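User: These chains co-purify. Model them together.
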Amino acid sequence: MSFFKSLPFFLLLTIGFQVFSQENKSIQGQILDAANLQPLVGASVYWEGQSQQGTISDLDGIFNLSVPALPAKITVTYLGYEKSVRTIQVRDLEKVQRFYLKAEDFSLEEILIQDRKGDEQVKNMEMGKSTLSIEALQSLPALFGEVDLLRSLQLLPGVKSAGEGTAGLFVRGGSADQNLVQVDGAPVYNASHFFGIFSVFNPDGLKKVDLYKGNMPASFGGRASALIDVALREGERDRLRGEGGIGTISSRITLQGPLLGEKSSFLISGRRTYADLFLKLSSNPDLKNNQLNFYDLNGKAAFSLTDKDKLSVSSYQGSDLLGLDGQFALGWENWVSAVNWNRVNSDSSFFDLQGYHSRYNYQVKFDNLENGFDWTNSLSESGVKAIWTRILTSKRTVFWGMHGQVYHFAPTDLKPAPNNPIIRRQTQGVQGLLGNAFIGIKQEFSDKLTAELGLRQGIYAQVGKGKVFQYPDNAPNPDVDPSDSVFYRKGELMQRYQGLEPRIAFRYLLRPEFSLKLSYNRNFQYVQIASNSSAGLPIDRWVLAGEYIRPIRSDQISLGAFHNFDQNRWELSVEGYYKDLDQVIDLRNGARILLSDQVETELLSGRGWAYGLEFLLRKNKGKTTGWLGYTWSRAWRQIDGISKDRPYNPRFDRPHDLSLVLNHQFSPAWTSSFTFVYSTGQAVSFPVGSYLVDNQSMPLYSDFRNENRFPDYHRLDASVTWKNPDPGRKWKGSWNFGVYNLYGRKNPFSYDFRTIYNDQVNFSPSDGEIVSARPGVVMTYLFTFLPSITYNFEF
Amino acid sequence: MKTNWIFLVVAFLCVSCQEEVFLDLDQKENRIPVIEGHWTDQGIYNEVKISLSKNYYDSLDQELIRDAEVFVEEMSTGRKIAFNYLNATRSYRPNPSERAQIGESYRLNVSWKGQVFQSEGLMLAPPTVDSVTWNFEEERLFREAGYYLKVYGKIPFPTNNYYRIRVFENDTLKNQREDYLLFDDAFGLRVFEEGLELGYAFQKNDRVRLELYRLNKDAFDYLSQLVNLLFSDGGLFSPPPQNPESTIRVVKGDSQVLGYFIVSPVLIRSVTLPNQ
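Assistant: Joint model of the two components:
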């Protein structure tokens, strides 16, 4: 029945939009950086005297613009580059016009903290979207000197961290698995190294990152809270170049250049830690024989097949390995690949086709004949996405498309060693299909009012082969055996869900530099992590929606005011939001899910909601750049079976959150950066007493979850960069000196409520005679005054 | 060698520190009764301890409840077995000749100051323990050098396989959080037939006593949750801390109650390790 309800929507897409099309003469062009021939995205193009009716270049630097009476002068502008003006004749329409923009020759090299037009935040339709340029990212002080994409995003309003030193993101009250992290359109299921201390992105291989925390275009979906859209860099097409860095804990190298002439390019980038080497130097045999490393490899090849067709192939692979004594190992790996084909059909018609495959797997291995085992799991997602875009008039653009996804979560398999008498445990694999169709239209009603309306329809199916357990009263319960089970053959429909996701956004321009925006966004999420810890682990269990696990639904409404000052040097924005979540899950006390086929018996589900106000003042240009962000927000969950069924705050609910980022260029050789962060402490549960049971002194907890707080968190980081100011050198080197947590604030990582023996926090009863024992609290804190040094180079 | 992975990472980073702090903790207004009931087929093990919770920083001994009315009811007959408070053991004890019978269900009743608490349990048949062996092992991964014991036996039951082994070394219960030995049939029980190695390194001349319990599921879950809580460090990787779900319920009164009631057979084996 639900399928037929959605039929008209698909028919609408199938019929297409020919009725809207019209014949317009237009000019097509491409805008490139004169220095490296990289396409410039978002450059403004307009006819002289008609700056209100221009267009902007797309991801490949390409633009199409309707043509007035010729000859006429066309103007191209881009922040940080010299303006280009060219007279266009009728004969020029026959070929693609290329514009090579030169970077403005500032007396001091400036740091641009976002790659976009100066007035874009006021005039575009986007709310809750933040873009960080990689240059801005690389200028920030970093933990161990490791520039980290996800941790840098935590400096933006509305984005919370799980805690000290972790790269997990909690966006506008959503949990970490409600964020879709994708690389060139392909999802990454575990975006962290070293249990979340570092993210998997080597900054040298990145082009830019867009964070959507509010209104998401209808072409994106699948997660309830946020989209972190990471684009890998394309190689430069003029000559072979390289860059890299030697850091405190890792080194990295990137090579790029033409591949088959100037029509194609490649970029390959790698990073590896050298923790293993440090461990080998240790005198402690427990550490000496251990392995501890991670690496990242990413590459991209881009081909301009014709003037209208561009093909890129990109891939990322990253892995962690923690090994003990050559016998015990824990490793995990992401391998993500994507193919993107971009076609310019005409000056007003574009087509993008994308195919991708993402695989994540982990392994826990104990190499011992009698007690050993090999525990593995993998999951994958494959997808194809097609988007058609048509510029109908200068005031109306439509896009539509489809996105098909295939999920395959392989069985978790624990194989004992030959002489290990435990039985092999293998969960059943699960498969899911998700088909999405979407359509969006951007309509400019007047110079002041613009709207973007979108619809996304998802149809999800869990398919066999598989087994679904039946429970008395249809209520899964760990204490009640299943009453029956139903087997499904390969490909057979097991469960189906569908959801219509409207996306609505309005922008009203009060003045050229001041706008108001309103948006509403609905998302469904069909895959999530069954966990109740705040930080992700590599062995976390991903679960697909099924008979007992319903998809998460999120609704978000947001309202914002955006103002630019001083010729777009300053940006100010204030955004408020309210988000409603349904079918969020948590785990029962003592749940065991990693090797269970009855995960549903261990889950509890309920609702959540979040609201907040985000303030951002940003200076984009000049010797001093940076931003001040402040967020006041709250996040809530209400799940039957937790906190006596009453609302509670998840751990990442941190009402006050402030970040200050400053970059300053002292001279062509010297730059410095500071970041200061402050936030309310995490919401946690502290004991309200203690009791003795089974000869253990146990902390007594309230029935209500997370009613206490860690102390407020604050930290100041600083870095100084020196680079050789001589631009003529072929080898350009720079040194970065940084300090994380400059004033040594002891921000707690955890509080452990335990018995303290002999007044020593680390004394164990097995260490010797016990003279005294008393209840106490032991705080663990990380990263106080942590200096780092990195040498970066390019050639 | 018992390396916590997460802290191995942190150890590598050489940047974590620990120190004792004082937190201003909320305190529970009403103290909560804590009941620990053992009803077994060994008279000496049968007792009920009742105490009260206390403020977290209070380092005094637990306050015991000595004036409760305690009995265990045999469900099939309705016979009530009284437990009386003994100062010597600081617990309630029945007549030593009373003990649980296999296949019988029992209900613990505790009445105190107008409040009544109850819990039920089924006395299950014990498995068979054939032998306990020992062998000296050099240092291995996750194991120190020392004498290791193996328990051989048979567990012929298709269901209700929830076990605990308590280990006493020279009459001292091994009672650290890593000393808990709880297992069920999730990974099969062949390991018990082929020799279940206990993960403790003993020394020569050690006297070792083993107690094997076959638990009801609720008691097993309680102890599992208790161990999880003992390992919770309050950090990001730990689930939000919760009290273990008591197997005891409040049938009269508005107090909470903590603790468990274990009905179990107990198999005891003792060995003395060689002096060389």
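Chain A has three domains: 2-101, 120-230, 231-752+783-794.
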